[in-house]
Amino acid sequence: MKFLNFAFLFLLLQTFSILNKVIAQFDFECGVPDVKSQTKIVNGKVALDNAWPWMAAIYMDFSFICGGSIIAPDLIITAAHCVDDEAFFGYEFVYGTNKISSYNFLGETASKIYIHPDYFSSVIYNDIALIKLTKKIKFSKKVKPICLPTSEKLDEIEKKKVVATGWGKTDGGSFTYTSDRLLQTSLIIKNNKSREGCEHRRYNNYCTKGASFDSGLCQGDSGGPLQYFKNGKWYLYGIASFVKANAEDSCMISMPSFFTTVPFYLNWIKRVATGKSPQSSVKKNCGVTTQKKVVGGTVTQNNTWPWIVQIRFKNRILDFLLSGTLISNQHVLTLNNELFEWSNLQKIFVALGSNELYYYPDSDKLYSVISVKIISPDLVVLKLHRPVTNPNVSPICLPNSKQSSLILNKEIVTAGWGSIGRTIDSSSPSLIETKLTVNNDASECKKYSSLSYCTFGNESNICFGDTGNPVMYLVGKRWTIFGVYYHFTTDKTGKKCDITKMSVAYNVVKYVDSIKSALK
C-alpha cells in the first residue's frame, strides 16, 4: 500500500484552503438558492425571484450592458469585453433583483477591474474579467455567491445539460430591447468533435446548443453564467462570451453559443482574489523532452517537442506563416522572412504548446510579439509580450560556438507542419517529425554557403510549410538547435516538393553569440 507524502498533502490542503476563500464560503454556502429554480434567453423562461441570487447586472452610463456572477463578497466575474475600459469609473453593479427596470441607479461601484492579461479583443481570447467592488456585499436570501469548480478539468460537463441566465434580447432581432426580467434557458455542451457549428471551438471555450430548437443566447447575455448543478449546489463553469449573428446583427439561435471556460482560469482567479502575482512554471532546464524514440515522418505526441512554435499573422483569421523555436522562456528564433511586416507587430502572434494546427489556436497558448531583433539577413529573434508560463512548454538548448562540425554526417531530427501531399496547399494538421542526415560534402551542397547545413532523408524531407523548422541534435541528454530550415527541393514546375532530394538550413552555431546577446 502506498501513502501520500505529508508535504504534498499539506500543500494540497493549503491549495484547497485558498480556493475555498476564493469560492466565497463565508457566512453563506455558495451555489444554494433559497428558491428552487426551474431547470427546465432567446425564448427562455422567466426566472423565479431569488432563484439565481448570484446574478449581477452591469451598467455603463445608466444603460444595462452585461451580466455577471457574484463569487465573493467583493468580487464579480464577467466577460472582459463587457468592462474592457479599465480606466472608466462609470460602471455600476446591481444585484438582488430579477427585474432590472426597478433599479434606481444606486448600484455598487468598482474599486478595481482586472482584465485577464492575455485578453485579445480582436479575436475574443481570454474573455474574462474580475471586478473588485468598493464595498463588500452583505449576503442574504436575495444575494448569495455561486460556487467555483473545484477542478480544472474542462470536460467534466461534456454533453451535460447546463443553465444560462441573463437579461439579453428575447427574439434575436437587431432592433429589439434587452429583457426587463431575468431569463433562463437550458443548454447542452457540444464540445467533443461536434459538427454543429462547434468544430472550430477554441480550447478555452465551451460550445453550447439550445436544449430546444428555439433557445439560445443573444446580445445582452454576455458576461452571464453557465451553471451546472451537482451535489446539491450550482457551480459556475462558463461566462457568456459570444454568439453568431447574421448580416443584420440579429442573433442566430440555431447556431451555438460560446462561453469562456471558468475551470481553465481558476489559478488566475485565485491570484487576483488573494493579491498574489503569477509565478512562472516554465522548466528551467532546456532541451528536455518526453520523447524516447524518433520515428521518421510520423505525427508526434503532444509535448514531444515543447519548444516548436507556430508563427501566425492576423488577417481575417490567424494565418500560419512558418515555424519557430523557443530558445528562452520569452524568445523565439526563426527566419527573417521577407513576407513579415516587422513594423506591424500587433499582427504577429506566436502559438505554442500545441501539436495541432488549428484555425484558432488555444488562447492560453497565444502570445503577441513586442520586439524583433535581427541577427543576420536570414535569422531573427522575436521577444514575446511576457514569459511563457505553460508547464508543458520549455526552450531548446543553444549550442556553443565551437560545435559547428558536431553534426556533420550525423543524423538529426526536425519537426513541423509542412505539406503531407508534397504540394503547397496540403499542410499537415498535426506536428510531424522526421530524421535526416547532414551531408555537407554532397556535390549539390557546394553552391551553398559555409553558413548552411545540407540534409538528406530516406524517402522523407521537409516541404512547403516547413521553413523555420529547427535542426535538432541530442547533445548528451539535451536537445540542441543547430540550424533553421530555409530551403527544400521542388520538381521542375516548382509546385511539388521532391523529398528524395536535399534540404538546407542556416547554421545557428555561426550566429550563437549574437543570438545570446539578443536574449539580454
What does this structure look like?
With 520 residues, this protein is mostly beta strands. Among the domains are: 24-277, Beta Barrel (Thrombin, subunit H); 305-384, Beta Barrel (Thrombin, subunit H). The protein has helices at residues 6-22, 266-274, 512-518; strands spanning 45-46, 55-60, 63-72, 75-78, 91-95, 110-115, 129-133, 161-166, 183-189, 205-210, 225-230, 233-243, 257-261, 298-299, 308-314, 318-326, 331-335, 348-351, 366-374, 379-384, 411-416, 432-438, 452-456, 470-475, 478-488, 503-507. Strands 14, 21, 22, 23, 24, 25 and 26 form a seven-stranded antiparallel sheet that branches. Strand 16 (318-326) and strand 17 (331-335) form a beta hairpin. The longest helix has 17 residues, at 6-22. The radius of gyration is 26 Å and the shape is elongated. Residues 1-27, 39-43, 277-284 and 292-296 have low confidence and may be disordered. This is Peptidase S1 domain-containing protein. GO terms for molecular function: serine-type endopeptidase activity. Residues 1-24 form the signal peptide. Pfam families: Trypsin. Belongs to the peptidase S1 family. CLIP subfamily.
